[in-house]
């Protein structure tokens, strides 16, 4: 076997080991950092350069698990650029149908074929375009059916002094619980992304984040049971930057981050990954 092939095999084996730890109930102990590139960059050349720069900094598998979600047209090329690194490929959305007359949609089979392992579902920017809880749940089921990992985004538009936003989050979790049995919810990742913090520079405080992590776990305990709730990793997203990542991770008690803007600069993304290491 070539040197490159040996490295690749070692990386895959280490990743499988992480996944095995997860399936043994240690899921929350392996943090996850996902870079959501959104509608950036606008050329394949720039996407390739960014992917290569991230891959160079992430050669070996050491926690956290690092994932990048480029726009659909770049998945194949980005997949090639990160192939020999520890970086894992993700997609930003998926359609519920797998094949047929659905102009403009992207199938889970296509994403799987291109090597995507995580699929972001229900991002607030998609919900703002009309995606409902019901559609989000259908997408989550589609992803799980094809043995990939959905990263399900939840989060309130604004905070109010009466704490109604907690009810909003609880309802988002309830809609998932209506369709997902315990065995399925254990296979998803939840990304708590308060909409007011996304792309605004207004990061939630460590206290906000910690409180929400506990709240989500409590709701999942109510909807399932404690052991199941403990298995579901909860990431935080919303203006995560190199200078707030360490405190949010250590004191906020989250399972990692979903990073937008800061994932577009390889150095900033690497600094966030380091803060979680
Ligand atoms: P942001 O985006 O880090 O730019 O706030 C996060 C997200 O939308 O996933």
Overview of the molecule:
The protein has a single domain, classed as TIM Barrel, CATH 3.20.20. The protein is globular and about 50 Å long. The chain has helices spanning 3-26, 44-56, 75-82, 108-113, 124-127, 133-145, 164-179, 182-185, 206-223, 226-231, 242-250, 266-276, and strands spanning 32-36, 65-69, 88-91, 118-121, 149-154, 189-192, 234-237, 256-259. Helix content is 48%, strand content 13%. Helix 6 (133-145) packs across helix 7 and helix 11 (242-250) packs parallel to helix 12 (266-276). The two termini are 31 Å apart. Residues 19-26 have low confidence and may be disordered. With 277 residues, the protein is α/β, with parallel strands linked by helices. Helix 4 links the parallel strand 3 and strand 4 (118-121). The chain has an 8-stranded parallel β-barrel, surrounded by 6 helices. It binds 2-phosphoglycolic acid. 2-phosphoglycolic acid (PGA) is lined by residues 36, 193, 198-199, 237-240, 258-262. 2-phosphoglycolic acid (PGA) binds at residues 36, 193, 198-199, 237-240, 258-262.
């Amino acid at each position: 076997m070539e040197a490159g092939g040996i490295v690749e095999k070692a990386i895959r084996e280490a990743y499988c080991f992480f996944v095995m730890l997860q399936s043994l109930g240690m899921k929350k102990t392996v943090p996850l950092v996902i870079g959501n590139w959104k509608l950036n960059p606008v050329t394949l050349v720039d996407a390739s350069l960014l992917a290569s720069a991230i891959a160079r900094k992430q050669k070996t598998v050491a926690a956290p698990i690092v994932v990048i979600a480029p726009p659909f047209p770049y998945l194949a090329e980005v997949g090639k650029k990160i192939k020999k690194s520890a970086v894992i490929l993700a997609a930003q959305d998926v359609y519920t149908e797998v094949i047929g007359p659905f102009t403009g949609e992207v199938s889970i089979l296509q994403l799987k074929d291109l090597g995507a392992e995580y699929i972001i579902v229900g991002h607030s920017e998609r919900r703002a375009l009309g995606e409902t809880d019901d559609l989000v749940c259908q997408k989550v089921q589609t992803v799980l059916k094809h043995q990939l990992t959905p990263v399900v985004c939840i989060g309130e538009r604004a905070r109010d002094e009466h704490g109604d936003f907690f009810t909003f989050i609880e309802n988002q979790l309830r809609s998932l619980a209506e369709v997902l049995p315990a065995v399925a919810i254990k296979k998803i990742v939840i990304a708590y992304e308060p909409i007011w913090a996304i792309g605004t520079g207004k990061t939630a405080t460590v206290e906000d984040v910690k409180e929400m992590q506990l709240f989500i776990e409590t709701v999942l305990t109510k909807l399932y049971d404690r052991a199941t709730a403990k298995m579901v990793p909860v990431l935080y997203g919303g203006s995560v930057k190199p200078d707030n990542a360490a405190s949010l991770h250590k004191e906020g008690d989250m399972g990692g981050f979903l990073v937008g803007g800061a994932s577009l600069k390889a150095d900033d993304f690497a600094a966030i990954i380091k803060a979680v290491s």
